[in-house]
Write the structure tokens for this entry.
Amino acid sequence: MTKKHLPSLKKWPYKWYGFWPPELLDENGNFDIEYYRNENWQCPNKDQIIKYLKSCNAVAGQASNIKCPECDIMLPRASYSYDNVWLWPDQLAHEVEAHNIVLPDNFVEHITKNNFTPPSRILHRNHEWPWPDSSKNA
């Protein structure tokens, strides 16, 4: 897979992030995470954004953990957060904080517009969330 086939973080076309669905995988089923990593990411308020990602309520998941493949920290398995607009796996905060994964510009703008404050309640049911395989989220 070449980088030109991956969605740009400047114009991320979805309302989810941190999932790597089949259309982003190469012919061997691998995802090039390096394309979304940048040790020099200059994100204003990065600490507040990480706190936001961590503090949104988990809305779905399993009560088990998996090891981070990069640092062996235990992370929630198949646990997801949703803020009435964006959906992400809970390990995304760890990936941003510890492994320099960059967030899409429109996700950062959304979090900033919300003053880094997660919603107090979820307004949609899980079948309405923008799951990666949903035709509604492009």
User: Anything to note?
Assistant: The first strand starts at residue 58 and ends at 60. The radius of gyration is 15 Å. Residues 88 and 95 are 12 Å apart (CA to CA).
